[in-house]
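Ticket #4471: structure output looks truncated?

Reporter: J.K.
Steps to reproduce: submitted the chain below (132 residues) through the standard prediction queue, then opened the result file.
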Amino acid sequence: MYAAIDVDSKVVLHARLSEHRGRNPAETFLEELKEKHRVSDAEFLVDGMGNLTALARTDLTGHLDYSERNIVEKLFQTYTMRIERFHVTWNGSQASTERWLTAYTAYYNHHRSHQELENQTPLKALKLESSI
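Returned output as attached by the reporter:
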């Protein structure tokens, strides 16, 4: 799974399942992210050299940084747990799993409150921050 998360607002910008890891799936993910969001000025924190290569090949910049991994690890743990539950009850195709991932991401951003955000959803917290 690939995910782009705004570490301040906790908003999941994009999430994608992939059967394989590596530069090509990472590049595909980053191109999709660029289509959805203005990320040309964003700083990407990645956990491996292959992802740095994918950033460079898609004209994005980043560096190795493990200090902001807590929010990312929590998100992946939550997604993994939910995906495992979903997979046990529904042995559908990858396409159905991706639809579920999209729906869960919408729930996570729009409806799930976070203690770190004073019990607000990520998008509500982002809107309040932007209005200041």
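Triage note (M.O.): checked the attachment and the full token line is present. Helices lie at 23-36, 49-57, 69-89, 94-110, 122-131.
Status: closed, working as intended.
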